[in-house]
Amino acid sequence: MKQGHGMVLLYSLKNPSFPEYVFSSNSGVMCLDFNSEHPHLVAVGFYDGNVATYNLRKATSQPTHKSSGGSGKHAEPVWQLQANKLFDAKEIKEKCKTEGCYQGQNKDQMSQDSLNSLTVAFTAMKHKIGGFEKILVIIALVKEFVLLPVCLVKWQKDDMDNNSNFFSVSSDGRIVSWTIVKNELVHMDVIKLSVEGTMQGPEGLQLQSLGSGTSFDFHKKIDYLFLVGTEEGKIYKCSKNYSSQFLDVFEAHHMAVDTISWNPYHLQVFISCSSDWTVKIWDHTIKTPMFVYDLSCAVGDVAWSPYSSTVFAAVTTDGKAHVFDLNINKYEPLCSQLVVTRKKNKTTHIQFNPIYPIIIVGDERGLITSLKLSPNLRKMPKEKKGQEVKKGPEVEMAKLEKLLSLVREPESKAEE
Predict the structure, then answer these.
(1) Residue 175 has what pLDDT?
(2) Which SUPFAM superfamilies is this protein grouped with (predicted)?
(3) Would you say 20 and 9 are in contact if contact means Cβ atoms under 8 Å apart?
(4) CB 142 within 8 A of CB 119
């Protein structure tokens, strides 16, 4: 798919007709995220696999930092097998000098820096032939690089050296950490979404299969814990401390996981949505979902509300926004409203305002719709005479836990 130029537009609700900031780019913009500790910093992911940061305090339309082909950019090589040959050690060295071989590693283990400067790659195995040690070399040419869009970027807390850092995910199966060190954007692969089994390449060459990341979210309290959703419908529970293995795998959906989000109040609960028409609420210690909602249409996005542990909203590709409150109705949405009226247009994203009772909905044509939640959709506990209504995170957590205990109860009885 050919991509043209992209733009980042930042608006104020006081003036929705014209943006406060305008940033142009040579590639389409796929995602962005504001830094909660430094709100003037914005991380952006592009269609061509690059990431960049913008500083709103600087009077420039150019990014302050940007990745490049040799610095961790999300891309996937398309391999073309050339030949199987036998060489001795001297011939190997000469060939590497002339053809730029990358010796000693399987191509699936090569770093991104190596891949971008690579012309020839090979796997080598020692064989003894007629008393002489020979090396069997499988030469594979990088035919081309497929640009992979950055699906999501998210800021994390500043590191121990007070450097700002964010993470990105793409369908190349890499979760990449990006740290701003002085005037440089330093990257590090946190984990690769390898899946079970291998796929067969040309000439019977066995290639390691990688999962295609589509979404991820970091735990609100446990810094090292995060979840990753994939195109295959799986959700991986991962840790920053273990780059080679997963803590757990959820067989979550039948199609791509479009969004994952931890609950802002309950430490064990997260929500996911998919193109398989469903929204699911999970306890990360249990392999089966607590609640499942079929919205009869592909779900593009889902978001928890910032003011209640039991309220969430979702958008579907039929142009509707759905608002749920589990504390009022565990089975159906309180409201389903048509946001997009044009044909051949789909709603793709939804977000709550962190302070005001407002949600914004984005669609496929680039339009943003701002909606105010009616009082019925943001009911607060009624005050009783002589009694003070309890509020705060502990109350919200207890409210959701009470609902989850009702779901868990039949299972515990069956075990008994």
Answers:
(1) 87
(2) WD40 repeat-like
(3) no
(4) yes
How many Cα atoms sit within 13 Å of 345 on the Cβ side?
16
Task: Round the average pLDDT of the chain to a whole number and report it.
Answer: 78
Distance, in Å, from the CA atom of 151 to the CA atom of 227, rounded to the nearest integer, reads 14
Q: Cα–Cα distance between 212 and 233 in angstroms, integer?
A: 10
H-run or E-run covering 303: strand 299-304
What distances in angstroms separate CA 253 from CA 229, 233, 278, 292, 321, one per listed residue? 10, 4, 8, 11, 21
Q: Which neighbouring-strand residues pair with 134? A: 127
Vertex 264, ends 277 and 163: CA angle to 5°?
Answer: 110
HSE (side-chain half, CA atoms, 13 Å) at 215: 23
**Rounded to the nearest 5 degrees, what angle is found at the Cα of 59, between the Cα atoms of 53 and 62?**
40
CB 237 within 8 A of CB 227: yes
The amino acid occupying position 133 is E
C-alpha to C-alpha distances, 71 to 67, 79, 179, 206, nearest whole angstrom:
6, 21, 12, 27
60-74, 170-184, 203-217, 248-262, range with greatest mean pLDDT: 248-262
374 — pLDDT class (breaks 50, 70, 90): confident
Name the CA dihedral angle for 330, 335, 341, 343, rounded to a multiple of 10 degrees: 10
State the sign of the Cα–Cα–Cα–Cα dihedral 362, 367, 370, 371: negative
* CA dist., res. 292 & res. 272, Å (int): 10
CA pair distance 3, 218, nearest whole angstrom: 30
Two structure tokens written together for 122: 């090979």
* Stronger pLDDT, 157 or 378, i.e. the higher one: 157
Q: Which amino acid makes up residue 205?
A: L
Q: Please tell me the pTM assigned to this model.
A: 0.77
End-to-end CA distance of the chain: 56
d(CA 299, CA 139): 44
Which one, of 260, 261, 300, 259, lies nearest residue 277 by Cα? 300
